[in-house]
């Protein structure tokens, strides 16, 4: 946690480039696990935790059905939104109750704009489109979500940035991939039909939304252990240890200044190395 990259910070916000492999929010099932949420709460002073509500920052239509701003702040411990454990990128935290409520309202009303960078399997027939399929939790595997007519509305826009025909075996070898693993990739090369680098703009905020939508149109994320399929999963793990999904841009309205703020998280070094594995 000490090495977390800070993208932006002032008296109201802290924006970080979340590393992969770190859980964002505390859970009852893993009470002793270090999370972004617990780390952030420990960085705040007692004065910040007990800050008075500033009416000018609170949305006019704020409803206290689920608690007043201070109660919400104490419960959420400053968490505005979440990213999956293995997803890296822009994550926003609020330093006081008023900013938190303001930002939660922006996310709820879809004022914010998010952009993700993904590496997926296959070549797209349509290079720019809108995916609109409802999503719900799988009844067969509670860890997964699926497209289902009875699910909640979910919409994702995408645009293909680049296409790669194949992995470069020399680049993989130089990166330390063993000869046995290289042979395995070559032997099962028919499991790979190229790769696409894609930008995604989720219009809604469902759990696993981008992962489920891309998998549904037959372009699962590289390295996605839940959705990529057993054969590809085994091959992907050789050269991509976690799913290739990075929240690289988030635009919001600053709760105090009302200015539009675009926050950018550079692609992590590990994901940049992955892109170097492809034939130029």
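-> sequence recovered:
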């Amino acid at each position: 946690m000490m090495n977390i990259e800070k993208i932006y910070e002032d008296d109201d916000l802290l924006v970080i480039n979340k590393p992969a492999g770190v859980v964002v929010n505390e859970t009852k099932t893993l009470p002793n696990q270090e999370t972004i949420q617990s780390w952030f709460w420990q960085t705040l002073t007692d004065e910040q935790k007990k800050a008075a509500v500033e009416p000018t920052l609170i949305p006019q239509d704020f409803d206290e059905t689920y608690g007043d701003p201070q109660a919400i702040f104490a419960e959420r411990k400053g968490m505005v939104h979440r990213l999956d454990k293995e997803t890296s990128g822009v994550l926003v935290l609020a330093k006081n109750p008023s900013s938190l409520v303001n930002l939660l309202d922006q996310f709820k009303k879809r004022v914010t704009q998010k952009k993700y960078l993904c590496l997926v399997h296959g070549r797209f027939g349509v290079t720019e489109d809108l995916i609109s399929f409802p999503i719900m939790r799988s009844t067969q595997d509670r860890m997964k979500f699926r497209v289902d007519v009875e699910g909640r509305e979910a919409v994702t826009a995408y645009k293909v940035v680049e296409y790669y025909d194949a992995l470069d075996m020399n680049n993989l070898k130089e990166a330390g991939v063993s000869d046995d693993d290289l042979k395995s990739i070559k032997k099962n090369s028919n499991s790979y039909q190229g790769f696409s680098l894609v930008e995604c703009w989720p219009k809604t905020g469902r759990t696993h939304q981008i992962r489920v939508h891309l998998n549904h149109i037959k372009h699962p994320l590289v390295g996605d252990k839940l959705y990529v399929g057993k054969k590809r999963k085994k091959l992907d793990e050789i050269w991509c240890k976690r799913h290739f999904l990075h929240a690289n841009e988030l635009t919001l309205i600053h709760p105090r200044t009302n200015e539009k703020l675009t926050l950018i998280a550079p692609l992590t070094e590990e994901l940049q190395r992955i892109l170097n594995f492809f034939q130029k």
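Residues 97-108 form the longest helix (12 residues).
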